[in-house]
């Protein structure tokens, strides 16, 4: 028995239209898990401000030398915090060990 293009298109459209209904019915049949009481969270000590790394201090010194006369002191303080955050993030990235077979986190499509 041969299926015509028109019949095939009808079958595909019927399947696409009925898929959300089938998914909602399948999800409705899954019993809800009883909510277990969770233990109270352990109080975490407040993090003490860490001393900036020497690299972050060096970058802040360079920024102060280049732009110190054009930037207000509170802006320079914020810049120092931003630089520290960037240096800390780069240190965390360097600590991640990648294997040779690890792929990039994106897919290239031309």
Textual characterization of the structure:
It contains three helices and no strands. With 110 residues, the chain is an all-alpha fold. The protein has a domain at 54-95. The longest helix has 25 residues, at 5-29. The chain is elongated and about 80 Å long.
How do the helices and strands line up, and which of them pair or pack?
Layout lengths: L4 H25 L24 H14 L5 H23 L15
Helix pairs in contact: 2-3
Order of helices and strands: HHH
Low-pLDDT regions? none
- By oligomeric state, this entry counts as single chain
Count of beta strands: 0
Shape: elongated
Computed over alpha carbons, the radius of gyration is 29 Å
What's the end-to-end separation, in Å? 39 Å
Mean pLDDT metric: 78
* Helix content, binned percent: 55-70%
From the structure above, extract its key features.
3 helices, 110 residues, 0% strand
């Amino acid at each position: 028995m041969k299926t015509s293009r028109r019949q095939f298109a009808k079958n595909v459209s019927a399947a696409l239209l009925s898929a959300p209904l089938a998914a909602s019915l399948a999800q409705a049949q899954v019993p809800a898990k009883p909510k277990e009481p969770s233990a109270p969270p352990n109080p975490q000590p407040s993090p003490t401000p860490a001393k900036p790394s020497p690299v972050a201090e060096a970058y802040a010194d360079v920024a102060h030398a280049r732009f110190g006369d054009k930037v207000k002191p509170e802006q320079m303080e914020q810049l120092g915090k931003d630089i520290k955050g960037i240096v800390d993030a780069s240190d965390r990235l360097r600590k991640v060990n990648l294997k040779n077979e690890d792929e990039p986190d994106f897919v290239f499509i031309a």
